Amino acid sequence: MPSSGIHGFIGANGAGKTTTFKLILGLLPIEEGAIYVAGERVIYGQTNRSQTVGYLPDVPSFYPYMTATSYLKLCAAIAQVPRQQQEDLCERLLQQVGLAQVGQQKIRSYSRGMKQRLGIAQALINRPKLLLCDEPTSALDPQGRKEVHELLTSLKEEMTIVMSTHLLSDAEQVCDSIIMLNNGAITLSNRLSTIYERYQTQVIVLNFTNTTNAKDCAEALDASDWCVVTQQSEQVSLNVATITSGYPRVIAWLHGHPQFMPALTIATPTLEDIFMEVVQ
């Protein structure tokens, strides 16, 4: 896996995402195969992963009576950060995750999004090479999700980030590559741009300003032998053999029928469309 970037770990509930994270952390025994992190083999119960791996669980737990600063100092002490470095480290981390102004407030007063950012701060204490985030935005409102996305994006040049999620729209927004898990096995793994190219549909969409024009165009195209026509509301979809051969034919047809002036787009599958195709 690359030493930087955000990599989406996606799959249905029960596919094995959290279990895989626990295997990487050395919290579960590995029954078959081997896992290496930064060249070091992971051994159940014997590997100190805190020096190379940061972990944000799905629902991070905090001591609500503590302030963010005191909580991070406790985590730094547990991680064996030298005492003289702890204060500067905590201030830097709070600044990095956007909590510097509320570092002295009790954690009980924090929103869920603020707690997620504090959870990321504790996962960064030892400057890990690998950051595992288990469903980091699953229970957040849109603003909280945006804040976590921006934070992870700001970190992706410094480390490898693996983010498990069932919110495929989140993966589309922030991930550089995707690892798709189904029934405990990887069914698809590649850069997101490559996946889109591989699963590109052969559909050209004509977008009209009203339903009447769309219907008239669909009826006029229906006799063509080079496309399959479907019309829905103000859109006419043309399923062609290939985009390369079909697009010029659409342009030529429209030139011959100047009464139609639609906007043209090529239908792009969403990550959800691709996921459903792969798992089925």
Q: What is the name of the CATH topology of the largest domain? A: Rossmann fold
Terminus-to-terminus distance = 26 Å
Number of helices: 10
CATH-wise, what's the superfamily of the largest domain? P-loop containing nucleotide triphosphate hydrolases
Number of strands: 12
Neighbour order of strands in the largest sheet: 4-5-6-1-7-8
Organism: Brochothrix campestris FSL F6-1037
Pfam families: ABC_tran
Family: Belongs to the ABC transporter superfamily.
Keywords: ATP-binding, Nucleotide-binding, Transport
What does this structure look like?
The protein is α/β, with parallel strands linked by helices and 280 residues long. The protein folds into two domains: 5-197, Rossmann fold (3-Layer(aba) Sandwich), CATH 3.40.50; 201-279, Alpha-Beta Plaits (2-Layer Sandwich), CATH 3.30.70. Helix content is 38%, strand content 21%. The protein contains ten helices and twelve strands. The protein is elongated and about 80 Å long. It starts with a strand and ends with a helix. The model has no long low-confidence stretch (mean pLDDT 91). Keywords: ATP-binding, Nucleotide-binding, Transport. Belongs to the ABC transporter superfamily. Residues 1-208 form the ABC transporter domain.
Task: Please write out the topology.
Blueprint: E1 5-10, H1 17-24, E2 36-37, E3 40-41, E4 53-56, H2 68-78, H3 83-96, H4 112-123, E5 130-134, H5 142-155, E6 160-165, H6 168-174, E7 177-182, E8 185-191, H7 192-198, E9 203-207, H8 211-221, E10 227-232, E11 235-240, H9 243-256, E12 263-266, H10 271-279
Parallel strand pairs: 1-6, 1-7, 4-5, 5-6
Antiparallel strand pairs: 2-3, 7-8, 9-11, 9-12, 10-11
Helix pairs in contact: 2-3, 4-5
